[in-house]
Amino acid sequence: MTTDPNGTQDPQPIGALADRTSETIADTPSSLPGNKSCADCGAGQAYCVWDVHPEDPSQGSLCSACHDKRCLAAKWVTADETRLAELCARLGIQRTFVRNGAAPSLEDPGIIERITKYPLPTGGLYVTGPIGTHKTHLLCARAVDAAKRGYTACVLNWTRFTLMVRATYAAGAAETELDMLDRYAAYDLLCIDDMGIGRGTSAESEAALRLGYLLLDSRYGSRQTTDVASNLTPKELEARFDERIARRIAEITTPYAMIGR
Length: 261
Known about the structure:
Mean pLDDT: 79
Strand content: 5-15%
CATH class of the largest domain: Alpha Beta
Number of strands: 9
Distance between the termini: 42 Å
Largest sheet: 5 strands, parallel
Radius of gyration: 20 Å
CATH topology of the largest domain: Rossmann fold
């Protein structure tokens, strides 16, 4: 389990389950249901440990990663309004986006009115547009959509990220830069909001820029999905930061413009 700066524990990142795939079915009780491949992903017995299907054991066995994804997704199905707000908070989504007992959705009118093409491109997005075009709303909806399908996700405000890096330099800090890097690199979907805001020249800002590049590079190397939202075009972002960060973002995202009313 990981803990965010607010003290909320996040679900175990799915990527952290990879070390279990070296185990085999040899240690599995014979009472587990029959077929020898995962009912969801089809992985064979040489690569998986097995768990009973959480919804219907008669459907067969699931590998541990697929089992955990289904358990994470099930939390959203049964959540009441209070629990829904808690689940959104764990994704880094502010309560203002939880309206009328509903989490942000890709079907929300505020998003549908402003998207330039539908369906959205696959993979990561670089979302641009003027203030008020629901860029943050779109990132929150993307995170919820991923969570409802059993993936780990997080919405991370860039300015907050900068402040969190600064906090690691305080005496007795509970988290190091490496801890932050590992934590945010582990999410299946990371949505970085308001990138380009608050770029300064202080040592802390430079440290955040360095760690931000390492985070993007890590996610690029592991082929994890990363969304970025900014008021800046890719060219403007390159001028604000540097070519390395702009190039890495270009390699892991597809530009996507939101439109005003």
